[in-house]
């Protein structure tokens, strides 16, 4: 990926940053880079994620999915980091395999998929690092039962990716299911380039080697200066803008197929950096659609935002037919792609004209190689930003608390935590 921070630079308007202040910040980037390299070399928790391009074995993943490689549909059951990386990849790329991601526990929505899908031709991809997440396990139990009711042997159609112990691992062993390991030291939101994100990609027939090669190329750019490294340029600039008041980061890909990448990014940024009263709030937007819903605020609202555009060169385009309506003549001879590009450039310029910082993340096209680079680059940017904020990027205690309390409220976990939640929500909890 390439990163253009030009429109974030401004010595006058806040929250812009000046080149001089970024040059000063570069000393901290060099120190942070050393810390990151040490963490990677020592395979420390979290930093290990940046070693995935060398660690992930595509053959192992392909072997595990082989029994279901002809599936017409793939039902991935997981949530957060156990779903969004896979969804980012498979929603961005074309495949003959239909993909459905069951993350939410919405009974109507889950039922509608189970009633519609050809279960005998559907594969199940269950993913949970901890193997204990209530939403994932509950959805899996519901799916399993639906397969049984339809007379389909779910054990023949299920692949499990989880840690080396826990309820999901036990279940996989009990039923002899093909299973893969979530690598040690890799938090869920940083695991897209492991089996967590790549099982779905493999079932859909995507090029796993190219995904890893794109990530490896991005890894090669990591260096001690933000001016030489696109990922660090992004991480350092967003951090510097936050220090100058841009507490909100609206990420806006300009391609329908990249919409999920904004969801993935939002978890990465929020769960990694949102701690110790610090962090930057990610907001998901989609170009050009959200020009007509959010741009007014971005251009004229509070000066507390930065906009991250994610752009890509056109691959397939479509001409706009000419018409004899005079007012529409300007569209004649243009293509939908050209219109989109013009809209993006106009939006970028309109923000810049009012001193609203924006950063452009550029992909050459949408393919496995570029996606691997985007996922790795944003992860590295996030790790760098975490070092600059001085937070523990790789933990998520606030979410874990709620997870345990949910279990407690259902009678399956820590009562004290459940009781504390109950007090706030006026729910009754009984031992
Ligand atoms: O992979 P697991 O353990 O099911 O967790 C799913 C998600 O839940 C969280 O732990 C908290 O929401 C995320 O960090 C993680 O991506």
UniProtKB/TrEMBL annotation:
Family from the record: Belongs to the GPI family.
Keyword presence, Protease: no
UniProt keyword annotations, A-Z: Cytoplasm, Gluconeogenesis, Glycolysis, Isomerase
Function: Catalyzes the reversible isomerization of glucose-6-phosphate to fructose-6-phosphate.
GO cellular component, one term: cytosol
Catalytic residues of the enzyme: 271, 292, 403
Reaction equations catalysed: alpha-D-glucose 6-phosphate = beta-D-fructose 6-phosphate
Enzyme Commission code: 5.3.1.9
Subcellular location: Cytoplasm
Metabolic or biological pathway: Carbohydrate biosynthesis; gluconeogenesis; Carbohydrate degradation; glycolysis; D-glyceraldehyde 3-phosphate and glycerone phosphate from D-glucose: step 2/4
Entry-linked Pfam families: PGI (PF00342)
GO biological process: gluconeogenesis; glucose 6-phosphate metabolic process; glycolytic process
Main location: cytoplasm
CDD domains per UniProt: SIS_PGI_1, SIS_PGI_2
Protein name, as recorded: Probable glucose-6-phosphate isomerase
UniProt-annotated stretches for the region Disordered: 1-22
PANTHER family to which the protein is assigned, alphabetical: GLUCOSE-6-PHOSPHATE ISOMERASE
Molecular-function annotations in GO: carbohydrate derivative binding; glucose-6-phosphate isomerase activity; monosaccharide binding
């Amino acid at each position: 990926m390439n990163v253009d921070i030009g429109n974030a630079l401004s010595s006058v308007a806040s929250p812009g940053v000046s080149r001089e202040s970024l040059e000063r910040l570069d000393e901290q980037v060099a120190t942070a880079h050393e810390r990151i390299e040490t963490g990677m070399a020592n395979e420390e928790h979290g930093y290990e994620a940046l070693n995935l391009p060398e660690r992930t074995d595509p053959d192992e993943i392909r072997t595990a999915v082989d029994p279901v490689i002809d599936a017409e549909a793939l039902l991935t059951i997981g949530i957060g980091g156990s779903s969004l990386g896979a969804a980012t990849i498979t929603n961005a790329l074309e495949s003959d395999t239909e993909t459905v991601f069951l993350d939410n526990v919405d009974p109507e929505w889950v039922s509608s998929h189970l009633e519609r899908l050809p279960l005998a031709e559907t594969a199940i991809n269950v993913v949970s690092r901890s193997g204990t997440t209530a939403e994932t396990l509950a959805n899996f139990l519901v799916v399993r039962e639906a397969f049984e009711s339809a007379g389909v042997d779910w054990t023949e159609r299920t692949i499990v990716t989880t840690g080396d112990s826990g309820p999901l691992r036990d279940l996989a062993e009990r039923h002899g299911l093909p299973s893969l390991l979530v690598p040690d030291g890799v938090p869920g939101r940083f695991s897209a380039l492991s089996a967590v994100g790549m099982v779905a990609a493999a079932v859909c027939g995507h090029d796993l080697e190219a995904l890893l090669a794109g990530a490896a190329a991005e890894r090669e750019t990591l260096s001690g200066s933000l001016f030489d490294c696109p990922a660090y340029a992004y991480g350092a600039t967003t951090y510097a803008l936050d220090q100058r008041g841009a507490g909100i980061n609206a990420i806006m890909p300009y391609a329908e197929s990249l919409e999920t990448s904004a969801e993935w990014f939002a978890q990465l940024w929020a769960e990694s950096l949102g701690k110790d009263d610090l962090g930057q709030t990610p907001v998901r937007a989609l170009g050009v659609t959200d020009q007509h819903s959010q741009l007014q605020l971005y251009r004229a609202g509070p000066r507390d935002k930065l906009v991250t555009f994610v752009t890509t060169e056109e691959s397939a385009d479509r001409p706009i037919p000419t018409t004899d309506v005079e007012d529409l003549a300007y569209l004649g001879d243009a293509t939908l792609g050209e219109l989109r590009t013009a809209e993006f450039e106009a939006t970028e310029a309109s923000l810049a004209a009012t001193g609203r910082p924006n950063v452009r993340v550029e992909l050459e096209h949408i393919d496995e190689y570029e996606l691997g680079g985007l996922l790795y680059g944003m992860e590295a940017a996030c790790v760098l930003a975490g070092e600059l904020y001085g937070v523990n990027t790789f933990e998520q205690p606030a979410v874990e608390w709620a997870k345990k309390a949910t279990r407690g409220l259902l009678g399956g976990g820590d009562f004290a935590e459940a009781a504390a939640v109950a007090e706030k929500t006026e729910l009754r909890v009984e031992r």
